[in-house]
Amino acid sequence: MNAVLDTHVRLAIEKVEREAWFDMYAAAPDDYIQNSKLSSARLGTSIALADHGTPIAEFNRVLGIGIDEPASEAELEQAIAWLNEHASPSYALQVAPTALPEAVWTWIEARGLKRAGNGWAKHYRDAVPTEEHPIPTALEVIRLEPHHAADFGHVAQAGFGLPLPIGAWLSALVGRPKWNVYVAYEGPTPVACGAMFIDHGWAWLGVDATLSDYRGRGAQNALIKRRLTDGIAAGVVGFTAETGQPPEGQEELNKSYCNYVRAGFKKAYVRPNYVSNG
């Protein structure tokens, strides 16, 4: 991957993730928005997300700063102010290592935010044909139609251990433009899920969850392969996903990380999380 392509890819995978999450929040039903104090906003070229009903960083963060164009201190101040006003206290400011200008890191730390944990590994894969997994699964992967949307919401909520009401929100992604939503079944029982958002020829893969009793049976490998196959058929030129970044030397212990590596994804970079000391 040459330097020009590398810059293009890093921009594209940040943008498609940004748009996927912003559209996901736009899909939320009104009652969920009211009960969970859900909100989202575009702040310049970044997006801000808040969900008091799901008080974890994935649902309470700002991402995209310094990607489309260099950030300013005013933009950073706006992002932090928005999070303090709208988000759960467990929020994160996520800034890609390619964000401009380089002074953005100094600005963040000067405002009392500290880097937390190992960050998120951003994975990338081009549109080469997929290969068969060495251990096929007996589970059946189905692209859902709206009349089975509740299966997706149930598996995502239960698989991640999220608050029960979030199932109705995530179910709303089924049948929504730009989204392809999948569930793996054992007979009639929904046991695992995954989603794909396609925008401007790029695809974001996410909402990968498996019910605890069905883990280790190849469901996510099959779901990744199906999304890659369908995405390539739809003209996707590049795919991205993110997982937690394992400690150095312990990558093989993170199942999600290994699933994407096994499917031909390469880690593009690690995106840190900055959190408030408060």
Mean pLDDT: 94
Count of discrete domains: 2
Largest sheet: 11 strands, mixed
User: What percent of the residues sit in helical stretches (DSSP H or I)?
Assistant: 25-40%
End-to-end distance, in Å?
41 Å
Oligomer: single chain
Total beta strand runs? 11
Strand content: 25-35%
Please state the CA-atom Rg, rounded to the nearest Å. 18 Å
What overall geometry do the principal axes of the alpha carbons give?
globular
Describe the structure.
With 278 residues, the chain is of the alpha+beta class. It folds into two domains: 3-122, no CATH class; 140-236, 3-Layer(aba) Sandwich (Aminopeptidase), CATH 3.40.630. It is 33% helix and 29% strand. It contains eight helices and eleven strands. Strands 1-2-3-4-11-5-10-9-8-7-6 form an eleven-stranded mixed beta sheet, sandwiched between helices. The radius of gyration is 18 Å and the shape is globular. The termini are far apart. The model has no long low-confidence stretch (mean pLDDT 94).
Compose a concise summary of this entry.
This protein has helices spanning 3-26, 30-36, 73-86, 104-110, 149-160, 166-171, 219-233, 255-262, and strands at 39-43, 46-50, 61-63, 92-94, 113-126, 140-143, 179-186, 189-199, 202-210, 238-244, 266-276. The chain has 278 residues and is of the alpha+beta class.
